[in-house]
Design brief:
Layout: E1 10-13, H1 18-29, E2 34-38, H2 45-55, E3 60-63, H3 69-78, E4 83-86, H4 93-98, H5 100-121, E5 124-131, H6 155-172, E6 178-185, E7 187-189, H7 208-216, E8 223-226, E9 238-239, E10 241-243, H8 244-261, E11 266-271, E12 277-278, H9 279-290, E13 296-299, H10 314-320, H11 328-348
Parallel strand pairs: 1-2, 1-4, 2-3, 4-5, 5-6, 6-11, 7-10, 8-13
Antiparallel strand pairs: 9-12
Bound molecules: uridine-5'-diphosphate-4-deoxy-4-fluoro-alpha-D-galactose.
Length: about 350
């Protein structure tokens, strides 16, 4: 490992994944050096190549499990790391109900290791990848950061909430050495407009947009819309879909905020657009902007789904100077472009 004395890079755990790769690109655009740690359990080196093509430089990358304390300590030391954007973890709601121990082990283990290593090094600013899932069924929409958190329905959601609590406790006891921002994501979709990075699920996609793009690509016959009898404007579920590039930019803003205002604090921000969209609206927009028909069929509600929620993102706008700028049309166009680009690259090998 080469020691880098002069620059203080940002450590990005889970940086080869869907959201992480987009954050790597936005960090580069903001002129920040990035060190990616990823064990490639649910990601691939293709994302690293995509990042290199977009940014014009190879990201520094370690294929390391973020629970490996010796390796993490070494990386933090060598690169003089104080800033960390922490995404490394497992993310399937369905899988988490079948393998809860694995989810607790990985999702809490990565955070505990990171906090230990940063405390040892004497300083750390952490941006944590949390989720709106911590709100459970919110009492009100739009959901503000003051809404009650912790009423999660599944082990995945609970790992997000427990991680938030752990970070709170450790920062509070750190005597100013640590600080953190907890970013509660709503529903990230879309991809970098180049199509060189995007969402590449393994197996059957759990989430709406990757399922739609696979139907569009002919990999799946039709979309099953889970429930058309919700108390929403057209009966289908309503979510706050946010372009992953906007979401990634939110991390850069949060890091800048933490560096200048956050010492010793833990602050929570919602990252969403503030607009709820139904499943049918997503399908209609996707069809319109891409000129492709998406066959669909209504199916029973998916267990654990809720009817409607969307963010109040005004705190992030006020404090971070960040707001989502890209439209639903951009999200649908960029998601389809990435599906096509990544697919044709995979074929070429
Ligand atoms: N949906 C379908 N058919 C599908 C997939 C999804 O109709 O094949 C519907 C769902 O019922 C829901 C909407 O599309 O109404 C969005 O579903 P997603 O699975 O895309 O997203 P969720 O809102 O269920 O979950 C997402 C993330 C979670 C995170 C949660 C937090 O996947 O990781 O948002 O808000 F916890």
């Amino acid at each position: 490992m080469q020691k880098n004395e002069n620059s203080r890079a940002v450590l990005l755990t889970g940086g080869a994944g869907y959201i992480g790769s987009h954050i790597a690109v936005e960090l580069a655009a903001a002129g920040k050096q990035t060190v990616i740690v990823d064990n490639l359990r649910n990601a691939s080196e293709d994302a690293l190549r995509g990042i290199a093509e977009i940014t014009g430089s190879e990201p520094v990358f370690y294929r390391v499990d973020a629970r490996d304390k010796d390796a993490m300590r070494e990386i933090v030391k060598c690169h003089g790391i104080a800033d960390v954007i922490h995404l490394a973890g497992l993310k399937s709601v369905a899988e988490s109900t079948k393998e809860p121990l694995e989810y607790y082990n990985v999702n809490l283990g990565t955070t505990l290791t990171l906090l230990e290593v940063l405390l040892e090094s004497g300083e750390g600013r952490i941006i944590f990848s949390s989720s709106a899932t911590v709100y459970g069924i919110p009492d009100h929409v739009p959901v503000t950061e003051e809404a009650i958190a912790g009423r999660c329905f599944n082990p995945y959601g609970r790992t997000k909430y427990f991680n938030e609590q752990i970070i709170n406790d450790v920062v509070a006891a750190s005597e100013g050495k640590l600080s953190a921002v907890l970013l509660r994501y709503f529903n990230p979709i879309g991809a970098h407009p180049s199509g060189l990075i995007g969402e590449v699920p393994t197996g059957v996609p759990n989430n709406l947009m990757p399922y739609i793009t696979q139907v569009a690509a002919g990999k799946r016959e039709k979309l099953y819309i889970y429930g058309n009898d919700y108390e929403t404007r057209d009966g289908t579920g309503v979510r706050d879909y946010i372009h992953v590039v906007d979401l990634a930019r939110g991390h850069v803003k949060a890091l800048e905020w933490l560096e200048s205002h956050g010492k010793g604090k833990v602050e929570i921000f919602n990252l969403g657009t503030g607009q709820g969209r139904s499943v049918l609206e997503i399908v209609e927009t996707f069809q319109r902007v891409n000129n492709i028909k998406i066959p669909y069929e209504f199916a029973p509600r998916r267990p654990g789904d809720i009817a409607e929620y969307y963010a109040d993102p005004s705190k992030a706008e006020r404090e971070l100077g960040w707001r989502a700028e890209l439209s639903l049309e951009d999200m649908c166009r960029d998601a389809w472009n990435a599906e096509k680009t990544l697919q044709s690259r995979a074929k070429k090998g």
